């Protein structure tokens, strides 16, 4: 448990320094290795709800099972989006960590391509960060509508995610990213954000050249 909280704290510090958790947005979780805590059922460590992620406190993380039931410490409130995390762990084999951030670039991409329900990136060296090494490499990231109702949003996400692509965009909200370790999840998130920033800059460059 202590190791999981430490892992989350380190990643939270790194990503918050980049401004990827504005206005208390975002949340993170990792799977707990020693799951003997409650009848061997899978357990995740997840961020508390509504915290300033740039500040470290003793109340930043807690433990829930894959039904989202809180069991340690019981005085804290888990992320409002816990159901999205637990859905991803349930559906994606080998998922060990899930990070969610709201950035300007992932919001712009979701707004630009949301109506198509997906955005495709092709022939970028950065696709190797997703272990795609083919000459004609591409990745298709699903985009779902945002819903204030989290069970409805989680259901939308469950409908589109699959093991080949470790992320899903939520329109005008943010991105959920996962991997088979916290290291892989961070690498996937950085690669997605790189591609989004590239695409938005390319979009405006092309517009500028047309004028
Ligand atoms: C301004 S943040 C709105 C809620 C949200 O989308 C989010 O990612 C943070 O929710 P949490 O309960 O995990 O703090
Ligand atoms: Zn969010």
TrEMBL record:
EC identifiers of the protein: 4.2.1.109
Protein name (Swiss-Prot/TrEMBL): Methylthioribulose-1-phosphate dehydratase
Subunit structure: Homotetramer.
Catalytic activity: 5-(methylsulfanyl)-D-ribulose 1-phosphate = 5-methylsulfanyl-2,3-dioxopentyl phosphate + H2O
Class II aldolase/adducin N-terminal domain ranges (all copies): 6-200
Lineage: Bacteria, Bacillati, Bacillota, Bacilli, Bacillales
Family, per entry: Belongs to the aldolase class II family. MtnB subfamily.
Pathway membership, UniProt: Amino-acid biosynthesis; L-methionine biosynthesis via salvage pathway; L-methionine from S-methyl-5-thio-alpha-D-ribose 1-phosphate: step 2/6
